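Q: Structure tokens for this one, please.
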Amino acid sequence: MTPTDILMPELTDQAENGVVTAWMVDEGGHCDSGQLVAEVQAIKVDDQIYAPHAGTVVDRVGINVGVATGEPICRIIPD
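A: Here is the predicted structure, written as tokens:
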């Protein structure tokens, strides 16, 4: 299995970007499939990001750093 980029979701029709407000998995930490990885926000709309598969979380963006919709917020490398 190849690494998976986790993308900033489209939270509203008006928002072109969002921010990660909290990370639930440390950089280099393990996550399980379906585990909550991050919380994101755009124009006061909150959402949660879950891991699509188990692996190691790397390349996390910083908290409150703007990320365009559809751009990676982190990558999961399968175990």
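A few notes: The chain has no helices and eight strands. The mean pLDDT is 96.
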